Amino acid sequence: MSKVDAEAPQAEAEQVEAVGPVTSGGRRRPRWPVVAGVAAVLCSVVMAAASGHILWEHRNQARDQQNRAEFVAAAKQIVVTLMSIDFRDPQAGVQRILDNSADPFRTEFQSGAEDFVQLSTDAGVTTKATANAAAVRSATTESAVVLVAATSTVTTADGVAEAPRSWRLAVDLQRDGDRIKMSKVEFLQ
């Protein structure tokens, strides 16, 4: 037996030892650094997916919060517009209400607008409203129902102010192009 033949089994044993032990099926078992590397890659992928999901949820929540804030601001302004009437120019008040309303409220209010103007003129009072608080009852991206707490003060033609009155309203809102308009209003007890 030559020296080369004697070294061959030893070299083969060293090569097998470098790769790892052989299992009973003849396949080599992976070494610890390979297993750790694969585990690190899998953990990184899972963490990236979780981070992406959290970021997506955060953006959805921020968009929903912005949407609700827009509806609350619109509801407060619309309630002030609806409840603030000056007997010296009731037609302007009616027009502001119509400009900020959508059907079915718009059609309903428009049909009684002349009576409203006459009643305001005959009463000879100015009503000034303040929206104190508002909260969204329900909302989608295109519509919402907002609850508004408001206070109104009536002042007579001779400048005498009555005690403020408190109101609670449920206002149905809907998007109309780039504006938010009232489609229904309900005075609550």
From TrEMBL:
Transmembrane residue ranges: 34-56
GO cellular component: membrane
Region (Disordered): 1-28
Domain of life: Bacteria
Assigned keywords, A-Z: Membrane, Transmembrane, Transmembrane helix
Localization terms from the record: Membrane
UniProt biased composition (Low complexity): 7-22
PANTHER family: OUTER MEMBRANE PROTEIN RV1973
UniProt name for this protein: Mammalian cell entry protein
Organism: Mycolicibacterium vaccae ATCC 25954
Upper taxonomic lineage: Bacteria, Bacillati, Actinomycetota, Actinomycetes, Mycobacteriales
